[in-house]
Amino acid sequence: MLISGYKVELELARDWIRENRVKRVLVQAPPGLRNIASKLIEELSSSLEEALLHGGGCWGGCDLAVAHARAVGADGIIHLGHARFLDEDPMPTLYLECRRGDPEPLLRTLERGISALEGYERIGLGATIQWLDHLDQVKLLLERHGVITLTGPPTRPLKYEGQVLGCAYRPLLQLSSKVESYLIIGSRFHGLGLGLQTEKPVYYLDPELGVLDGLNAEVERLLRSRYGYIERARKARRMGIIVSVKPGQLRMQCAMKLKKLLDGADKRAEILIMDDVDIEMLRDSGLEAFINTACPRLSIEDQERIKLPLLLPAEALIMLGRVRWGEVVRSPRYLMMEVEYHGLR
Ligand code: SF4
Asked: Which of 28, 58, 62 is the pocket-test mutation for ligand 1 (most atoms within 8 Å of CB)?
């Protein structure tokens, strides 16, 4: 069934409800798909005793509302807009990916903006789950313009060839020696996540906004700003380490290791346990800077609103003199959230 231009697999949902004997379900949807969630609830009402709409954040497949579902006695979760992220779901969960039905906005934007990709012969290609069904058409169109596109087999937490998440680009990064640049279909957000991890030029195509553009200048500007926040954090004595209870973002061990390193560097560190990161709470805490062990993109997208430094683990290690800026910046290590990846146990 097509709802607001998205393919919603109603029969799959009905089968899943029947097979799992789900009676009360909690339906989660990210911003932009919440109207689909309420229409879905209407469609499924005859198959369930109760369908409840989740009112909290739903930023990725990492963000399963397990605690909320248990609190209200739900025996299953329907999660819209994302593919499976966790290896195992803590409770019966159906991921309804809601892919876009019509490739036209994507192909039109590509045709119109293709001159931006002139001069490249081999491009690494990725897309968000919503546009994944149309990747073959993108490949063909680019081939007609003399461009060969490459994708890589999926690696955890990615589920599909060609898929990207705001925190997961490993198959594309592994193609680095084989491509001259990258094109990410989805949004500026998704392109930027890759741009921070590679020296190669990254372009993004946003079919909703009809934009195809390069990100190099924005990546450079952003990194200058990140460097400034690291310098500010050096001067902070009281720091907070943010741990999220979202199942795919929970990194307590990492937080404990960072706390030990901060203690050893004569800084006072508190571990803050949060679900959605509450900016007001951070500002009220009296702490002077933060390290984010939750979703890496919080440090990029929410930094300007928080104002106080909100460092990634890699940036915290730079601040502490454990790794060098040049070792991680524009490399796959930049968004790696576990300190082990940076050679620290
Ligand atoms: S950790 Fe952040 S970027 Fe990654 S899937 Fe979750 S919300 Fe998206």
From this structure: 62
110's tokens: 């590509």
List, for residues 36-91, the tens digit of each pLDDT value.
Answer: 999 999 999 999 999 999 998 899 999 999 999 999 999 999 999 999 999 999 99
CB atoms within 10 A of CB 71: 10
Nearest residue (by CA) to ligand 1, atom 5, is 60
- Ligand 1 center to 249 CA (angstroms): 8
Length of the chain: 345
CATH topology for 2-99 is Rossmann fold (3.40.50)
Distance 264 CA to ligand 1 centre (A): 30
Pick the CATH number of 219-342 from 3.30.70.920, 1.25.40.10, 3.30.2350.10, 3.40.50.11860: 3.40.50.11860
DSSP 53: E
